[in-house]
Amino acid sequence: MVSGKNIAVAASVTAVVAGISYLAYFDYKRRNDPKFRRKLKRSRKKAEKTAEKISGDASLDEINSQALELLNIIAQEKLPESPEEKEKFFMAQVSRGEALCGAGPSGYADAACRFFQALKVYPNPVELVMIYQKTTPDIVFKLVMAMMAQEVQQKQARYFDVFPPEDKHVRIKDKNKKESKKQAKSDGAKEVVVPNRALFTTKEFAEGDVVYEEDSVVSTLLPCAQNGQFCHHCLRKIPEAVDAAKEDDSEAKEGGLEEQEPAAEKQEPSKSSAFECDKCHESVYCSEKCRQDAYDAYHQYLCPSSSSSTAREFAELAKKTHELAPVLIAKFFGILVDREKKKELARALGVSEKQKTEADEYTTWEHLESMRYLELIPTASDAQVLRKLGELMSNSVPGLNEFVTSERYSMLKGKLDYNAYAVHGNDVPKETESTHVSDTMRDDHVAGAVGISLYLISSHITHDCDPNVQIVFPEGTDKAAIKALKPIAADEELHISFVDPSLDVETRRKQLQSSYRISCKCAKCEADLKAAEATPTVNADTIDPMDDSTPSFAAVAASPSPATAAAAFNSEHEKKFAEATLEQSEQAAEQAAESESPEQPEQAAEQAAEQDVEQDAEQEKPSAQDGE
């Protein structure tokens, strides 16, 4: 990769050589070719008009308009493929741009085109942009930036035509598009309609079918699962290294044969099957492949035992925030750089990428930009994390400090908060106060969460409290599968539950509003709200549990929502009945205590005996009288 210093030196030397050759050719054509002179005159007038457009205090709209024109001019220029051709092309474009800048405002537009083309083939565009900002005229730099922005807009305009790939059997559509067209036809007004994109099927699916599978962009373990039992890369549960050898060892002990085997052999089967990072011994993996992939992508920056103490300080700072976002964002940038490096290496080696689609021309960052996000206000802890993140990765990712501003960091957090999913696993330890994190994640709570992960396609699935699909993890890793919960028609919108759908309607709506700013008005919420309104209310202060006028369970069960109404009735009725029964029991006990003196049992017994004698005497009196 060409460094900034080499760019400056090479550009200066090449500019001198190329400039002299070009001037000699230019002077010869000017003196001997009439057509060239006429063409030159037209070009000069065009250049003067262009210079007027972009010089001085040009507005942003004017710069964007000019940038769009320049993009159309260079649209047919072919870019080189091989590394050698790219290097030559880069040097030629930079030197030509330098020469045009030296010609004054009349050369600024063409200079911006040359610098822009150089940017297209340079392996680290962010680094080159920083150099442009310091070395080119301000208006040229603005033009280059505007050309980049316009190209991104053009690319994003056709993004949803090529992504997701056709083999996923889903597509992303804007639900507001049809409504805006109808409205425009009806009132003739042109209004800006905010896109409302969602994921739709392209074919039918039966209940239980897997709609598609998807690898994660970035994932990490929850703190409660960072106990050496789960892989720090794919989140798989690491199997224990217990096998038949251990059983043989126990049988030998029972038979008194333990002395026949060496101690080292007895300890071997009990070793863990986890693959530790051989530097920090803190991160563990389920395989050597996971360990190597993690190190290449991000662990080389985050490993706490690296020569610099920055990684350890970053980990401690992230732990104090009780957020996984700092780690996820650091991992994301590492993965982003690693993927682009691998693409460049494949091109350099001439390795053909299998099943390459149009969607592959988009970088991971461009995919991320298409996602919804929550607008967050930057905090003091965000500033600390961002500063430490720059220290951690700036040497390996040049230009990161300039690129990841406070606003962009908050935007990344907002995208994670809105789109990340909880990854479910088995035997997940319970969360404690020390392992609790405040990150938001889509979780229907069908199982315990072992980690958090982001997906490019599944992030476009919308919420419904009565979903038609569910995210599952059939391989026990962060690789997701979207499974149909009911029959799904072609061109039907996919819905997933962002929260536990078994919660009551008020709790669900509160969680959705606080976590996702969603005012849920799905059919299930509307039905639950109507059922709650129709449920009879019982005054807890006046209810008499022994009163026959109290509504019976059968009467309450006849309401529109028997289960909900009956539950409410039983809860209130049983509470009042228990209170009344307890009060009566206490009164009865007090009366019994007053009528009976436990301290004089003998006296009470004598009195009872005397009463019995008197009753017998009274019974005999009528008989005596009858004899008389």
What general outline do the C-alpha atoms trace? globular
The helix/strand class is mainly alpha
- Cα Rg: 38 Å
Mean pLDDT across the residues is 77
Count the beta strands: 12
Provide a quick synopsis of the model.
The chain has 628 residues and is mainly α.
Structure overview:
It is a single chain. This protein has 628 residues and is mainly alpha-helical. The protein contains 23 helices and 12 strands. The strands form 5 sheets. It has a 3-stranded antiparallel β-sheet with strand order 3-11-10, with no helix packed on it. The N and C termini lie far apart (140 Å). The model is unreliable at 1-31, 242-253, 257-271, 548-574, 595-602 and 615-628 (pLDDT under 50).
Relevant terms:
628 residues; mainly alpha; disordered N terminus; disordered C terminus
Topology record:
Layout: H1 4-32, H2 34-54, H3 60-74, H4 83-102, H5 108-121, H6 125-135, H7 138-157, H8 159-162, E1 170-174, H9 176-187, E2 197-201, E3 210-214, E4 218-221, H10 244-254, H11 263-267, E5 275-276, E6 284-285, H12 288-302, H13 310-321, H14 325-348, H15 364-369, H16 380-393, H17 400-403, H18 406-419, E7 421-424, E8 449-454, E9 462-463, E10 469-472, E11 480-484, E12 495-496, H19 505-516, H20 523-534, H21 553-557, H22 562-595, H23 601-627
Helix pairs in contact: 1-2, 1-4, 3-7, 4-5, 5-6, 5-7, 12-14, 13-16
